[in-house]
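$ ./design --mode recover --in tokens.txt
reading tokens...
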């Protein structure tokens, strides 16, 4: 009886060791983690940190206008590039706030330069988190200035509700409503209004 008990215990011990080894060395779990990265739900759409900016925003119905204007401006590859870049992404509702007919004019082929200028005004070089923006505001007497990819200036402040507010060159304001959405090539912040730079002298 003792002999059989010893065999059973030995068998159970081997099975336990084998199962532990299988779990530890399972390459499938590691591949899934590496491939998909961190997932964040943005306006009902899953955005994955292993995707680039274009791959993520094209999955959402809230950014169809942004995707269209990026394509029309010939900037798709810019926002798919290695970067890193930080993008302040207007929603469809943000674009609807523009004066009537302005967007229709901008997407015409002869206004491609103006459209590109507008879109690159919504991006800055590097990975700039909301904490980075707030820190710069606090260390610069309540106001921070950033140089956009358009070569123009964008100002950031914190309002009475503790929102980070972006102020364009015309005094227009846009609140960062969602922030720090990690992308493989940068960071995405969602804004409530389109930022408009002053006309560029040619």
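writing sequence...
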């Amino acid at each position: 009886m003792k002999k059989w008990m010893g065999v059973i215990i030995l068998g159970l011990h081997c099975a336990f060791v084998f199962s532990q080894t299988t779990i530890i060395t399972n390459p499938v779990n590691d591949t899934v983690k590496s491939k998909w990265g961190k997932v964040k739900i943005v306006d009902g759409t899953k955005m994955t940190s292993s995707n680039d900016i274009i791959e993520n925003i094209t999955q959402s119905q809230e950014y169809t206008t942004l995707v269209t204007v990026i394509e029309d401006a010939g900037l798709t590859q810019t926002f798919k590039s290695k970067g890193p870049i930080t993008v302040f992404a207007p929603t469809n509702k943000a674009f609807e706030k523009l004066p009537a007919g302005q967007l229709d004019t901008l997407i015409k082929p002869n206004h491609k330069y103006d459209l590109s200028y507008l879109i690159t005004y919504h991006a800055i070089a590097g990975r700039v988190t909301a904490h980075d923006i707030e820190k710069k505001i606090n260390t610069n007497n309540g106001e921070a200035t950033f140089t956009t990819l358009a070569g123009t200036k964008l100002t950031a402040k914190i309002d009475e509700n503790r929102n980070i507010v972006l102020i364009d060159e015309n005094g227009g304001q846009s609140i960062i409503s969602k922030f720090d959405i990690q992308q493989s090539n940068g960071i995405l912040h969602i804004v409530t209004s389109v930022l408009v730079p002053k006309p560029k002298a040619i």
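exit 0
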